[in-house]
Every structure is written in structure tokens, then in C-alpha cells.
Design brief:
single chain; DUF4259 domain-containing protein; DUF4259
């Protein structure tokens, strides 16, 4: 599988994708991958899944909701629509009734439950962000990173 941990940048495919994505931050390419995952009827390939989950984590990192050891010095517009599409694609990877190659690879490992819990954690913090930071925003309006000193954040909000 090429993975050395349960986090989404702990695999070769995600690292390669991030290195390709970083120079320009072209979200059109990632939206194409998300659309492919969402349109799939029979088989979700592991490469699209690795990239989708890496993008899920990148969104959380860029919004200051979590941290990564990967270098993520890239700017790109983050919108409510992009976050919601990424969450929907992630749900499909995790719960697709047909063949989700990456999920099946993880199901065969001893780390399946921690991996699934980590994806659920990322979905939760992004969903919580949308509820608190994005209400009333236009779907395509850029959203801002979390202010870590914000009064609405509980003291342990970023425990992962």
C-alpha cells in the first residue's frame, strides 16, 4: 500500500500529490478527482482515495484545525463548496457499499480502526468549522483560517 502510518500524508501517493500540487495550488485538478470519486458507481481506486484524503487533511491544516509535519506552504482559495465536496467524497471512500480499494486495504490491516477514526476526526473538525465559521457565507466565498485565540474554541479543541 505504500503507507507508513494512519494519517493522510503518511503514504507515497499523498506525498507525491502534495509535491505536485504545491507550486500552483490548482484546485481544478483536485475537484476533478473529487468529482470522479463522487461519480463512481462500482470501484473507487486507491490513488484517487489517497489524494482525496490528503486534500481533506490539507484543508484542515490550512484552516488551522490540525497540524502536519509536511511542508504545506501553499495558498489556494478554500470555500464552503470545496470543503463540503471533499467531505462527501471522503464519506464515499469510507462507506461506499461497493468496492473502495483503499478502505479494503485498510480493513485488512490492524490499523483499520485508528485510520477510520482519524478520517472521522478530520470530517468532524471541518464540519464543526463550517457550522461555526461559515454560516451565511456564499458557497464560493473564500473562508478564513481559525483564529486559535477565538473565544468559541474550547481549550482542548485541537487534540488529535
Amino acid at each position: 500500500m505504500g503507507a507508513w502510518g494512519i494519517k493522510n500524508f503518511e503514504n507515497d501517493t499523498a506525498v507525491d500529490w502534495l509535491n505536485d500540487f504545491q507550486p500552483e495550488g490548482n484546485t481544478a485538478e483536485i475537484e476533478e478527482i473529487l468529482d470522479q470519486v463522487l461519480a463512481e458507481k462500482d470501484f473507487i481506486d486507491d490513488e484517487e482515495s489517497f489524494i482525496t484524503l490528503a486534500f481533506l487533511e490539507l484543508l484542515a491544516v490550512k484552516l488551522n484545525l490540525t497540524q502536519t509535519t509536511m511542508e504545506t506552504n501553499i495558498a489556494f482559495p478554500i470555500t464552503r463548496a470545496l470543503i463540503e465536496k471533499t467531505i462527501k467524497a471522503t464519506h464515499k471512500i469510507l462507506f461506499f457499499e461497493n468496492h473502495s480499494e483503499l478502505r479494503e486495504l485498510w480493513e485488512e490491516s490492524e490499523e483499520y480502526t485508528p485510520w477510520q477514526d482519524y478520517q472521522s476526526f478530520l470530517i468532524k473538525i471541518l464540519t464543526d468549522y463550517l457550522i461555526t465559521a461559515g454560516p451565511g457565507k456564499n458557497m464560493d466565498e473564500p473562508l478564513s483560517p481559525v483564529d486559535k485565540n477565538s473565544a468559541w474554541l474550547p481549550p482542548d479543541w485541537n487534540k488529535n
